[in-house]
Amino acid sequence: SMENAEVIINEVNKEGYTGDKKFIIDRVANVIKAINKLVGKSIGKKLTVTIHDSVDSFKQEVYNAMIRAREKQKVEITDDYKKRALKESRDAANKGFYADTDGSIHINMTNATKDTLLHEAFHPVLDYMADNAADVIDDLHAQLSKITGKDITQPEVPTRKTGKEFISTAQRKYLGDITQKKEAITDFIAQVASGRFKIDQSNYEKVKAFFTNILRKFGMLKVYDKDITTVRDLKELADLITGKFAKGEEIQFKGIEEI
């Protein structure tokens, strides 16, 4: 237990991880510190992070989360819905998910990459924004749609990765306008933070505007007074935002009612 939050390591010795998986394990505690109070304010429950070393364990939680979501909506859980939930859980190959029904993050270590934990940790942050200042999501989403870029893990692919691709991917994978917007924004932030999304002179100004906007929403603009004039400066800015997770600094929204 850590400040009323929990980390649950399933069927595995923490020291057994290497590479990306070790990167995730090393940051779990700090991610919890950063967003635990925010989750409490949003849904009135403590945050839990479960690291699933077993694929079966992860798939079971996908099923459980779908059932809980239905219960929260106070909609009848029909046999057809149970069959659909079972099928989706069996087919689940995703890296992780955040369940807003109970404030739990689940990481599938079989498929997880460096940006997985960060991606899931941003969900409750955006949820809080959506509940308290819904126009923020629309604003960030509109900015994202204008960004061009490239996935540096696929240098041989000539087509540039754009903000619109993040958006269309989210629209394919998720239901509901707000959910799709939050997923696209979260995925973009996580890929910039992990270094997977390439920032260069062609997209620099728009990526800069996107992250300075987030700084403003986080109430951090006044404390970050450094001039941003190069790609390196922008990467440092992205590191500052995501660093609140890495260092375990509590995410707060100062004056969110003024946004």
How are the SSEs placed, and which strands pair?
Blueprint lengths: L5 E5 L8 H25 L4 E5 L2 H18 L6 H13 L4 E4 L4 E5 L7 H17 L2 H10 L3 E4 L9 E2 H11 L3 H18 L2 E2 L5 H14 L13 H16 L13
Parallel strand pairs: 1-2, 2-4
Antiparallel strand pairs: 3-4, 5-6, 5-7
Helix pairs in contact: 1-4, 2-3, 4-7, 5-7, 5-8, 6-7, 7-9, 8-9
What's the gist of this structure?
The chain is about 55% helix and about 10% strand. The protein is an alpha/beta fold and about 260 residues long. The longest helix is centred in the N-terminal third of the chain and has 25 residues, at about 20-45.
List keywords for this structure.
single chain, 259 residues, alpha/beta, 4-stranded mixed sheet, 9 helices, 7 strands, globular
Written overview of the protein:
The protein is α/β, with parallel strands linked by helices. 55% of the residues lie in helices and 10% in strands. The protein is built from 9 helices and 7 strands. The strands form 2 sheets. The chain has a 4-stranded mixed β-sheet, sandwiched between helices. Strands 6-5-7 form a 3-stranded antiparallel β-sheet. Strand 3 and strand 4 form a beta hairpin. The longest helix is centred in the first third of the chain and has 25 residues, at 19-43. The protein starts with 5 loop residues before the first strand and ends in a 13-residue tail after the last helix.
